[in-house]
Amino acid sequence: MIRNFTIVRPKIGDALVLLLCVLLIPVSVMAVKQNPAKATAVKITSSDSTPRTYPLHPDRTLNIEGRLGISVIEIVDGSARFAASPCAGQQCVLSGWHRHSGDGMACLPNRVAMTLVAQRDDFDGMNY
Amino acid sequence: MYSQRVLEAYGGLLTYGLDMTQYMLRLAYLVVAALAISACQNEQVISRQSFVFGTIVEVKIRAADRVVANTAIDQLFARFDTLHSAWHAWKPGDMADVNAQFATDSWFSPPSSVLSLLKMSKQLFTTSSGLFNPAIGELIALWGFHADELPDSPPEHAEIVTFIEQLPNMDDVEIEGGRVRSQHSHLSIDAGGLAKGYAVDLGIKLLQKHGIENALVNAGGDLCGIGDRGDRKWRVGIRHPDKPGVLASINLQDGDCVFTSGDYERGYDYQGRHYHHIIDPRSGYPADKAVSVTVLHPDGALADAASTALLIAGPNDWQDVARNMGIENVLMVDHRGRLHMTAPMQARIRIEDDQTREIIVTPSS
After folding, report:
1. Closest by alpha carbon to A42, among A93, A102, A127, A85?
2. ipTM higher than 0.95?
3. How far apart are alpha carbons B348 and B329 in whole angstroms?
4. Higher pLDDT, residue A24 or B330
């Protein structure tokens, strides 16, 4: 139990801490608001294996083994695309580059899918 | 005496005036409470994906027991696989058998999973004023959508007109007890506008049977959620139908399902026009009045069918159809990029796309 409560006079250090807190408000707001939609990584699922996540930097080319063959996923400058896939429709390839968190594309015949994710887990599921 | 003072100092108000026994008892309560809290924190979100039901299905479960959650997910994926083959519109399976039996004009007993689909389809056909019509399997096939590889060009206009003139519908399916029959020679059931919704409903029920109270089941972009993620509600992003990124987001209440139908789904281009697989039974052509419709409702099967029916209805007529189907939460994107929505939907969603220019809200009736 607090029995000997005394009021302490604020010192210069307290004022400095307070000032720092106030100054940090806009900085933290900026940090949170900055580009929430920009993806930082791509999650790739193939057949029944565990999904793996690859960062969108540096640039690289991934050969993902699917049911029909190899799907080639290219990562360039923070974007990802299906560069090639062994399927008839080629919809995954034609969909082009993806860079927004939540975007995704699958080559269903080959059972390879990619979803772009951000560092901050904005959404638990995408509806489309 | 010293220990008593220390206890008072640490225990503060709670222990003031208590003797040692009472104090120990309270301490025990505290320990139990702390353990309970840490047990809650041990609950983790298990996330798994599989290529079932002709799409990619993702299940997220928040549960303390990993083994139980994984067993439940295994069973869900297996069930989805079974249902997919049973309900497939053009590959061998229960539905193909049922369609073959319909062609005989005589009574027969379909498998129970197909019977449930037929009963639901009849009801949804009526409440949607015929816009949701799964009896037009032949027309969908004519458009080339009953194949893994899509055609290069649409069918002849005359063929479509011929089909529309003798359009089969769900009233042509007669049900008596467990037996069914159709006397319409062109009736063929394609339950594609309903099957995924019904499957997700069944998937959620299966998880609940395993004691799971917090889960999100996402079947290729259509999903239902129960409970929450722990630190917050399940949050769903609705992908923009016209461009990359997210149009809006919804925090799911316990049991909510979110289903979207859009003209960007399965389809092909011919001479600069896009032909997609959601066919307007009135014209026989792909629905062209709206770009996409999102429906929020606790019944996945209803949400699935309603999103199809409302996409066909379009921006001028969807309100009456929604009311008849018992749907309160609707979001529609039209060809001018405008958002149409009901007032209850406006209260539930958050627009994430800052370039959204015009929102038209329909007051609830």
Report:
1. A102
2. no
3. 8
4. B330
Contact: A1, B50; criterion CB under 8 Å: no
Domain count, chain B: 1
- What's the whole-number mean pLDDT along residues B216-238? 96
Which residues of A fall within a CB distance of 8 Å from B218?
125-127
**B22 in any annotated domain:** yes
- Residue A38 DSSP one-character state: B
Domain that holds residue B13: 2-41
Q: Report chain A's C-alpha Rg in angstroms.
A: 24
Note whether B59 and B78 are within 8 A (CB): no
Measure B141 CA to nearest chain A CA, in Å: 18
Query: Is B245 in contact with A37 (Cβ distance < 8 A)?
Result: yes
Q: What is the pLDDT of residue B262?
A: 96
DSSP state of B286: B
In a domain, B129, yes or no: no
Phi and psi dihedrals of B361, rounded to 5?
A: -105, 130
Q: Would the pLDDT of B205 be above 70?
A: yes
Distance of CA B144 to the CA centre of its chain: 25
Length of chain A: 128
Which residues in chain A are closer than 8 Å to B55, comparing Cβ atoms? 106, 108
Name the interface residues of B facing A (CB cutoff 8 Å): 8-9, 12-13, 16, 49-51, 54-56, 58, 60, 148-150, 216, 218, 221-223, 225, 229, 234-239, 241, 244-246, 249-250, 258-260, 262, 294, 352
Residue B332 lies in a domain: no
User: What global pTM score does this model have?
Assistant: 0.81
- B235-239, strands of its sheet edge to edge: A125-127, B235-239, B246-251, B349-351
Gap between the Cα atoms of A22 and B46, Å rounded: 39
Tell whether the model's pLDDT for residue B22 goes beyond 80. Answer: no
Q: Is residue B6 part of a domain?
A: yes
In angstroms, the CA B173 to CA B205 distance is: 28
Question: What is d(CA A46, CA B68) in angstroms, rounded to the nearest whole number?
Answer: 24
